[in-house]
Amino acid sequence: MSWIWGAFAPHPPVLVPRVGKGREKEAAKTLEGMRQLCESLARKKPEILLLLSPHMPYNPGTLLFNSSPELSGSLSRFGAPDLAFSLSTPVPALEHLSGHLAAKGVMRAFCESPNITADHGSLVPLHFLAECWQGLPPVVIASPIGLTPRQSFAFGEALADFSDTRTWGLLASGDLSHRLTPSAPSGYDPAGAIFDKAVVDALASGRAEELLALAPNVVKSAGECGLRSACALLGLAGKPLRVFSYEGPFGVGYCTALVEM
Predict the structure, then answer these.
(1) What percent of the chain has pLDDT over 90?
(2) pTM of this prediction?
(3) Distance of alpha carbon 75 from alpha carbon 93, whole angstroms
(4) Which residues are bridge partners to 70 per DSSP?
(5) Is the pLDDT reported for residue 1 higher than 70?
(6) What is the pLDDT of residues 10-35, one digit of tens each?
(7) Which residues of 219-253 are buried (b: 16+ CB within 10 A; e: fewer)?
(8) Rounded Cα–Cα distance for residues 230 and 200 (Å)
(9) Is residue 184 over pLDDT 70?
(10) CA–CA separation, 211 vs 202, rounded Å?
């Protein structure tokens, strides 16, 4: 088996102390969840990391891979230009994975975006893992946003059958509803709490059907970005995850969870 673990992590820049400047303490449960996640993965650094981000470009109907061999970016948009990253994409490994997914019927597309500064969906969780591992492995970044939730789940199931000589980890980045409170960035909608409960319950049980059966209007009204990442992770896992934390500070839902394969 190539996969040694799969994880779900949020990506608010405010979690990073040099960005939050004290406000990160308002997300104490999430920081503790990230601490537990990193502690669990401290000795499980994979040879290749597949990162699903909802904040990179996307292509409708496909899983979009960033195929640039070298990637760089920083949290300069959030006042922390010194938090910069230089990453490598293992192109032969990406091609191997892509070929497997093609055989499984997963539609793929490719773009070369060497500057990932705009993709805080990748940069924030990578910041925590870089500290945990004292350096990052080669990273394959992909956007699942062009897929439907069911296509994302099928993509995750296809990942479960992937075979490689190297070890892989899946990091599914995603925030949940952005409409949990009247002060939330996108305002309040009661669908937010319904959506978040469905995601957390699905991760804790390992069962995706109720999540996949959510009415489209509920998903849309919740103002989420992490549904497809969660569905892909559930498809790969095929069993319950350990949910380390869930909370909704700032009116946005954050969840951390892990499954070891």
Answers:
(1) 98
(2) 0.97
(3) 27
(4) 88
(5) no
(6) 999 999 999 999 999 999 999 999 99
(7) bebbbbbbbbbbbbbbbbbeeebebbbbbbbbbbb
(8) 9
(9) yes
(10) 6
Could you tell me the CA-to-CA distances from 199 to 27, 168, 208 in Å, in that order?
Answer: 19, 24, 8
pLDDT at 173: 98
> Crossing angle, helix 149-160 and helix 227-237, to 10 degrees?
30
Q: What's the domain count of the chain? A: 1
| Residues 127-171: tens digit of each pLDDT | 999 999 999 999 999 999 999 999 999 999 999 999 999 999 999
Four-point Cα dihedral 246, 249, 251, 256, nearest 10: -30
Helices (H), the chain: 17-20, 28-41, 91-103, 120-133, 149-160, 191-205, 209-212, 216-222, 227-237
- Of 165, 184, 168, the closest CA to residue 176 belongs to 184
Domain that holds residue 78: 3-260
**CATH code of the domain covering residue 139:** 3.40.830.10
What value does the mean pLDDT take over residues 52-77?
Answer: 96
Cα–Cα–Cα angle for 129, 207, 175, nearest 5°?
40
Q: Which two tokens stand for residue 31?
A: 């920081």
